[in-house]
Amino acid sequence: MDAVARAHAALDGFLTAYLERSGITPSCRAGCFFCCYGWVEASLGEAERVLEAASDAARRRAFLEGRRRARLLVRAKNDPRLPERHFLAQSPCPFLEGGRCGVYSARPLACRGVLTDLDPAYCAPGATRRLRGRALLRYRSRLDPRRHGPEHYLRVPKEAARRRFFALLEAEARAFGFTLAGELSVLAYLLQHPPFQAALKRGAGAVRAYLQRRRILGGRYGVWLRLGSRR
Ligand code: SF4
Ligand code: SF4
Questions:
Q1: Which CA distances in Å does 227 have to 102, 159, 176, 200?
Q2: Does residue 150 come out as left (phi exceeding 0), alpha (psi in the -120 to 50 range) or beta?
Q3: pTM: predicted TM-score of the whole model, two decimal places
Q4: Which H/E stretch holds residue 125?
């Protein structure tokens, strides 16, 4: 099993034990996909795993959608509201197939860590912001600061996914000399883009130069290059 599959299995195991221990039953079900409108961060290894599992149609969608998001990053990679704007625009993840994740067993840590035990209707883009009066009071009364946050999402799964994501980046950088972190569709587009594939073969310097040329390197939400020394 490679580092990505190991990290995914470890998080799944942790989450199963956590939910059991806490007596929490998530409301998340197949066919429920508001969270797939989100800005999903992944590692290069995770994006490769997703592409391997994806259908030809999803790979094509990811190329087009990732290219669109890469162009968006040129002007918006430092916009603190980028993920929120993206969520409200309701552009679905290109790996969503008929309302279900088409790469479920290969989905990134970021997707695995998004869970709630409250009403899925709260996950709709802009839903909690539109709440007023009694509906807002009811929503607030259901939030448990020990269990939820941000908003109505389960805190522990989200934090565990984040921690394991950084550990995965380190493992990938150590194994290959470098890795990337960025939005899933953008990475999936790059991995299918011949000039990027050529840069990837030449190594970290060529990848950095490519990302700089495209003006998507770094920034708040751009593509990050993480270097590591092989052991
Ligand atoms: S996080 Fe919300 S939208 Fe996503 S699967 Fe769970 S309930 Fe559904
Ligand atoms: S990879 Fe799957 S779970 Fe994650 S956002 Fe895309 S469709 Fe949703």
A1: 31, 24, 9, 13
A2: beta
A3: 0.96
A4: none
Instruction: Confirm or reject: Cβ of 95 under 6 Å from ligand 2.
Output: yes
Burial class (CB in 10 A: 0-12, 13-18, 19+), 222: buried
Distance CA 130, CA 133 (A): 10
Residue-wise DSSP of 110-123: HHHT---SS-GGGG
Q: Which pLDDT does position 230 carry in this prediction?
A: 54
Q: Rounded to the nearest whole angstrom, what is the distance from the C-alpha of residue 224 to the centroid of ligand 2?
A: 21
Alpha-carbon distance of 182 to 179, in angstroms, equals 10
Alpha helices in the chain (DSSP H): 3-22, 44-53, 56-76, 82-89, 109-112, 127-130, 133-142, 155-176, 184-191, 194-202, 204-214
The yes-or-no verdict on residue 96 having pLDDT over 60 is: yes
- In our burial notation (b when 16+ CB lie closer than 10 A, e otherwise), range 112-124 reads bbbbbbbebebbe
Q: Where are the domains of the chain?
A: 3-227
Is the CB–ligand 2 distance for residue 93 below 6 Å?
Answer: yes
